[in-house]
Write a structure and sequence with these properties.
The protein is 74% helix and 1% strand. By secondary structure, it is mainly alpha-helical.
Length: 457
């Protein structure tokens, strides 16, 4: 059975105006930009906060300031789908943007560490909610042929947010940084009239006339089958037991992605660059890192198409591992030798690491998750992967300072390198190549001939 979202005969031969769809995608992914700003804000801000008497902090408190967003995001991602199903995708995204904007004002004028913790935690709740709802919304308004690109778009907005947070650090003022970061979620609120609701959600609410109109406005003219409409309704989390290997691959990739230390680098970039001792200011060094992140993410889609998903993911994780081991070795020698003449080596390893992450370990795990699960459990698998991703991020960011205190900075980076090395083996042995394979072929490969567990696609 098919549900017509537009008169196909009327629109088939008409040129499609893609501007409305691109506008909606741009606006809907602005919360991802805010996620990047909240994660990276601590890098320049911690140096400034330490100079304010009422906001001076211990190393443990700084680790909680950094990790509070990830803690809140884990909490916020849990009810996100239920809320989005209840009030709609558009209202959920706008609600998250309102919270993200307001929290920046609290952070900018906070006069106690408690307000910093609370406001960043609440902002994290909004980040977690939007990280679950925005991909859901994008997949519901996108054609099958462009859905793979959506993960790259989301990652690109995060990278832009990271760069923007680093740029605001040049103001050397916490209020100025926070007010500048509040502008982007504010833009979404001001342009909310350009956002549309998801046609899939409208169909679920028996509002098919509105769904037809929105699909036509977004350059529709295609048919949405009942099966496709139900794709994003989702099964229960227990349904993933029928896909044990796929679930293990999905969650494993999320764990290796975050425990590689990428967000520890983003959040503590200033501290790390100071320890390296390269003769550039922390602000300039962070700017180089942010620019690298943006440019590499921008190029990732073309590299994925040319190299292939599994191979690029393998190369990405192995390169990340080498970079971490080099940085670890530098810090190890720094304890006993004068190695400042070689400070350029770990300095450049940081952007190389971020480049490798941006073209492989950042977007590809999400693309593979979307490919290896059948439609009836796909949204649930993405939801579970999102929660696992945020939970792993808590461990990586919060434990960074604890590991440095207990093991030393050299052993900490060696541990991150070992995680990426194990992840490389994980990819080589367990992760299937999804390029050019149908969902039926992937299911047969993942279930390895166990016909009892193979479900009907």
């Amino acid at each position: 059975m098919s549900v017509s979202l537009a008169n196909d005969d009327r629109t088939r031969d008409q040129p499609v105006d893609r501007l409305p769809r691109y506008t909606v995608v741009l606006l809907a992914t602005l919360p991802a930009f805010s996620i990047g700003t909240y994660l990276a804000w601590t890098s320049p801000a911690l140096s400034i906060l330490g100079k304010i008497d009422q906001l001076t902090y211990t190393e443990q408190e700084s680790s909680w300031i950094c990790a509070s967003v990830a803690v809140g995001a884990t909490v916020g991602s849990l009810p996100a789908k239920i809320i989005a199903d209840k009030i709609g995708r558009k209202k959920s995204i706008l609600l998250s943007s309102l919270v993200l904007s307001l929290c920046w004002f609290v952070i900018g004028f906070a006069r106690s560490k408690l307000w910093l913790f609370v406001s960043r935690f609440v902002a994290g709740v909004a980040c977690g909610g939007s990280s679950a709802v925005v991909p859901m919304f994008l997949f519901e308004i996108a054609n099958e042929t462009v859905r793979e690109s959506l993960w790259t778009i989301f990652q690109f907005q995060v990278a832009l947010g990271v760069l923007f947070a680093y740029v605001t650090g040049f103001s050397n003022s916490v209020p100025a940084m926070s007010l500048l970061c509040a502008l982007v979620p504010g833009v979404l609120l001001l342009a909310s009239h350009l956002m549309t609701e998801s046609p899939v959600w409208l169909i679920a609410q028996d509002r098919r006339t509105e769904a037809d109109e929105i699909a036509t406005r977004l350059g529709g003219g295609h048919y949405l089958t009942e099966e496709e409409a139900c794709t994003f309704q989702g099964a229960t989390i227990l349904e993933l037991r029928r896909h044990r290997r796929a679930t293990m691959i999905a969650l494993g990739m999320m764990i290796f992605q975050q425990l590689s230390g990428v967000n520890a680098l983003v959040s503590y970039a200033t501290v790390i660059y100071k320890r390296i001792g390269f003769p550039l200011s922390w602000a300039t060094s962070s700017l180089i890192l942010g620019l690298t992140y943006v440019i590499a993410t921008l190029l990732s889609k073309s590299l994925i198409d040319r190299v292939g998903r599994k191979l690029l993911l393998f190369l990405s994780m192995s390169t990340m591992s080498v970079c971490m081991f080099i940085i670890s070795g530098y810090f190890r020698l720094q304890n006993t030798h004068s190695v400042s003449v070689f400070s350029w080596l770990p300095f450049f390893c940081v952007p190389i690491f971020v480049t490798a992450f941006s073209v492989g370990s950042g977007p590809i795990p999400w693309i593979i998750v979307e490919k290896i699960f059948p439609k009836d459990v796909k949204s649930t698998a993405i939801f579970a992967s999102t929660i696992c991703n945020w939970t792993s991020m808590i461990v990586a960011i919060k434990c960074f300072q604890d590991m440095v205190d207990s093991m030393g900075i050299s052993s900490t980076f060696a541990a991150f390198g070992m995680v990426s090395l194990i992840g490389t083996v994980f990819v080589a042995v367990l992760v299937p190549e999804t390029e050019g394979k149908s969902i039926e072929e992937l299911q047969i490969e993942l279930h390895q001939g166990q016909q009892d567990n193979v479900i009907c696609i």
